[in-house]
C-alpha cells in the first residue's frame, strides 16, 4: 500500500493564522513561531498536496480560491482536534484547564470584577482567558473556534448555539439631574426626546435592545450613535449633551458615582436584556459551560 502523507495540525494552524491575519509576520506572532518557520511550514503543505494555496507578493497575501476552501476546512479540522482535548477534560475534574471566553463590552467592566475572585477561589485549576469584543465578532470567534463560550446579552442572533440565561438586566433612562421628570417614577418611551438620545455606535447589541424596547422608529432615525463605551456616554450626559439608556448592572457597579445624573427605569414591557452564557451546540464541554453559567448566576 502506498504511503499517505497527511498535513500536520501545525501546518493547518499556520494556514488558518495567515488567513485570519493576512500578513506573514502577524500570523507568525499569533502562532508563536518565526516568520521563516511559518513560511516554510506553508510551503511544505503546498508541496505535500501539490497545489498553490497562497499567492505571495511583497505587499499582498492573496489566497487562491482553492486556498480559501482549504483554509475553511482546516479551521473545522482544528476545532475538531481541540474538541478531542475538551472531551478528555470533560471526563476529568470539572471546570479545570483552559477556557477561552469572550465578553461583550457592556457586560465585561460591570460583571468581571465581581465574578473573577469567586471563580479563582472555587475553581483554582481553571485557567480563564478573557477577550472583550462586541457581539458580532464574539459569535464569529465562537463558531470558528477562537473562543469556547461567550458572555452575551440576548436577544441576539449568534447562530447555532446553546445558551443558559443567567439573569435579566433592566434598562434605565439616564438624564442630567436637573432634567429628570420629577413626577415620573419610571420613564415611558413616549417621554424620550429622540433629538437628545445618545447611544453606543453600531456593533453594540445594547443599542438594539434599547431601541427595540422603546418601539419608536423615529428614535433609531434621530438618535446620535457615537459612543464607543458606556463610560464615555455617561461623561457626555454629565456634561449636559443629552440623555442615554443604561443597563441596571452598570448602575449597580457605580457607573454614575460622582456624576450629576439621575436614572429611572424604562417603563416598557421589554425593557430588559437577558444575560446569558452561550456555546457551540453539541460541545463536549457542555457540563462545564452549564457549571460556569451557574457560577456566574450565583454571584449576582
From TrEMBL:
SUPFAM superfamilies: Periplasmic binding protein-like II, Winged helix' DNA-binding domain. The keyword Transcription regulation applies. Residues 7-64 form the HTH lysR-type domain. Keywords: DNA-binding, Transcription, Transcription regulation. Pfam families: HTH_1 (PF00126), LysR_substrate (PF03466). InterPro entries: LysR_HTH_N, LysR_subst-bd, WH-like_DNA-bd_sf, WH_DNA-bd_sf. One of its GO terms (cellular component) is protein-DNA complex. GO terms for molecular function: DNA binding; DNA-binding transcription factor activity. Belongs to the LysR transcriptional regulatory family. This is LysR family transcriptional regulator. It comes from Sphingomonas taxi. The lineage of its organism: Bacteria, Pseudomonadati, Pseudomonadota, Alphaproteobacteria, Sphingomonadales.
Amino acid at each position: 500500500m502506498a504511503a499517505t502523507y497527511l498535513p500536520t495540525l501545525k501546518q493547518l494552524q499556520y494556514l488558518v493564522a495567515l488567513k485570519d491575519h493576512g500578513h506573514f509576520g502577524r500570523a507568525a506572532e499569533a502562532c508563536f513561531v518565526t516568520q521563516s518557520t511559518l513560511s516554510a511550514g506553508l510551503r511544505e503543505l503546498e508541496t505535500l498536496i501539490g497545489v498553490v494555496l497562497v499567492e505571495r507578493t511583497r505587499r499582498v497575501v492573496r489566497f487562491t480560491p482553492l486556498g480559501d476552501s482549504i483554509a475553511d476546512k482546516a479551521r473545522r479540522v482544528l476545532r475538531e482536534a481541540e474538541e478531542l482535548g475538551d472531551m478528555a477534560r470533560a471526563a476529568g475534574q470539572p471546570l479545570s484547564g483552559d477556557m477561552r471566553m469572550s465578553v461583550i463590552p457592556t457586560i465585561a467592566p460591570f460583571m468581571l470584577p465581581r465574578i473573577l475572585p469567586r471563580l479563582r477561589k472555587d475553581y483554582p485549576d481553571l485557567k480563564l482567558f478573557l477577550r472583550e469584543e462586541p457581539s458580532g465578532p464574539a459569535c464569529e470567534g465562537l463558531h470558528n473556534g477562537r473562543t469556547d463560550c461567550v458572555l452575551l446579552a440576548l436577544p441576539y442572533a449568534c447562530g447555532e448555539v446553546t445558551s443558559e440565561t443567567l439573569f435579566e438586566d433592566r434598562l434605565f433612562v439616564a438624564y442630567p439631574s436637573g432634567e429628570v421628570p420629577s413626577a415620573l417614577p419610571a420613564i415611558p418611551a413616549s417621554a424620550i426626546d429622540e433629538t437628545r438620545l445618545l447611544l453606543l455606535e453600531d456593533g453594540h447589541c445594547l443599542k438594539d435592545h434599547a431601541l427595540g424596547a422603546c418601539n419608536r422608529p423615529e428614535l433609531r432615525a434621530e438618535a446620535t450613535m457615537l459612543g464607543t463605551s458606556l463610560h464615555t456616554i455617561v461623561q457626555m450626559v454629565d456634561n449636559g449633551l443629552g440623555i442615554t439608556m443604561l443597563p441596571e448592572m452598570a448602575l449597580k457597579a457605580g457607573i454614575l458615582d460622582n456624576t450629576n445624573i439621575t436614572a429611572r427605569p424604562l417603563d416598557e414591557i421589554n425593557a430588559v436584556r437577558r444575560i446569558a452564557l452561550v456555546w457551540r451546540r453539541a460541545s463536549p464541554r457542555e457540563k462545564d459551560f452549564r457549571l460556569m453559567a451557574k457560577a456566574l448566576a450565583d454571584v449576582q
